[in-house]
Amino acid sequence: MVSFKLSNKTASPSIKLLVDDPIVVNPGEAITLVCVTTGGEPTPTLTWVRSIGNLPEKTVLNGGTLTIPAITSDDAGTYSCIANNNVGNPAKKSTNIIVRDLVVVLLSQRIYSTLDIVPNYSTEWFNQYATSPTEH
To answer: What's the structural domain count of the chain?
Structure first.
């Protein structure tokens, strides 16, 4: 004997991000964002979006997992996972990615005489490609 059970049960989607907010990374690092469904009937589909513009071209998507290899400052911003199953409103969770900037500025004070009221300042800028500091 074969029996079938029909159900009209539906439920709006719910999701959870398995990442911190914000996420602070160094340039060149790989970053992985993970989004999982925690509810919804039928099972929701997961998509990733970026608040400003498209996802970076180098982005790898695999289900609810988004990976950005060799992140740059251009990749910084707010990323959102959206779950939709056409029941109720889509669920959305977001996280911010902050990419550290590698700038080193040294500021030194030089006083040329005791009569100077306003000291002179010099700024030395170091660049990863420079062999010596440039004074401005």
So the answer is: 2
Number of Cβ within a 10 Å radius of residue 79: 25
Nearest one of 17, 20, 8 to 87, comparing CA atoms:
8
Same domain, 81 and 46: yes
Handedness of CA 46, 11, 96, 27 (dihedral sign): negative
Same domain, 93 and 40: yes
Q: What is the pTM of this model?
A: 0.69
Q: How many residues comprise the chain?
A: 136
**Could you tell me the residue range of the domain that residue 116 belongs to?**
105-135
Give the whole-angstrom CA distance, residue 121 versus residue 118.
9
- Rounded to whole angstroms, the Cα distance separating 1 from 94 reads 49
Instruction: Please tell me the distance from the alpha carbon of residue 131 to that of residue 29, in angstroms, as a whole number.
Output: 25
Q: Tens digits of per-residue pLDDT, 69-122? A: 999 999 999 999 999 999 989 999 999 999 998 665 556 555 544 433 434 444
Q: 53 with 23, same domain?
A: yes
Return the closest-CA partner of residue 66 out of 34, 44, 37, 92: 34
